[in-house]
Amino acid sequence: MSEKTENPMKEIQISKVVINIGVGKSGDPVEKAKNALMELTGKKPSVRGARKSVRDFGIHKGEPIGAMVTLRRSDATNFLRRIIESKKNVIKASSFDNNGNISFGIHEHIDIPGTKYNPDIGIFGMDVCAALKRPGYRISARRNPSKIGKSHRITKDESIQYFKSQFGAEVV
After folding, report:
1. 75: left (phi over 0), alpha (psi -120 to 50) or beta
2. What is the pTM of this model?
3. Could you list the pLDDT tens digit for every one of the 172 residues in the chain?
4. 100 CB burial (10 A radius; 0-12, 13-18, 19+)
5. DSSP state letter for 52
């Protein structure tokens, strides 16, 4: 008898990593946030508008108040590796959701290894969200989607195990 190999369709992968900087006001701060994201990722960020008007803060619906970038494939893996290293390889268990995705915040972007302080940009905090997938998840995005079986979905425990093995992260 030969050794039983693991099913390649059960292999967990990073689907995407979304980095978001919410500034809260339009104008120069949004441009600085875009420059910070460009410097960190090497990708062109997109501007995000306000969902609703908030009179107290002087924000109008649709006014640009943030910037975000989506990374996929090796860019996502490399960036996530740097981000986890900046968190000293410690991730809270509460950062994981029941579908195996992870979200956490970075207080200062200059904490990320390989990033130098630029006085023209300043210091920004950001939200990082990583979505995990298995091969075959794409069927749920079809025009007539099929359901994904329970055994093929990623659980919280599986994603914690993935981050421990792939990134050497300690989950607290």
Report:
1. alpha
2. 0.86
3. 556 668 888 899 999 999 999 988 888 999 999 999 999 999 999 999 888 888 888 888 988 999 999 999 999 999 999 999 999 999 999 999 998 899 999 999 888 888 888 888 889 999 999 999 999 888 888 888 888 888 899 999 999 999 999 999 999 8
4. buried
5. S
